[in-house]
Model the fold of this input.
Amino acid sequence: MSRICQLTGKKANNAYSVSHSHRRTKKLQEVNLQWKRIWWAEGNRWVRLRISTSAIKTIEKKGLQAMAKEMGLDLRKC
Done:
């Protein structure tokens, strides 16, 4: 399973690790993903999602239903 946030679609970023001598080596900057069980009030059940920590903060602000609708995610399948 790839490390992609189910709500925001965030994924790994290609970057360089630069040493003191300025030698560059490629590295991946992974997304901080967490398995989170969130209460979905409209569906009257728990939904388990793999989402980024920034998405968790946004859910607290906007709500799960609004964010899923904005991103085009069907919560009935989760």
Summary: The radius of gyration is 16 Å.
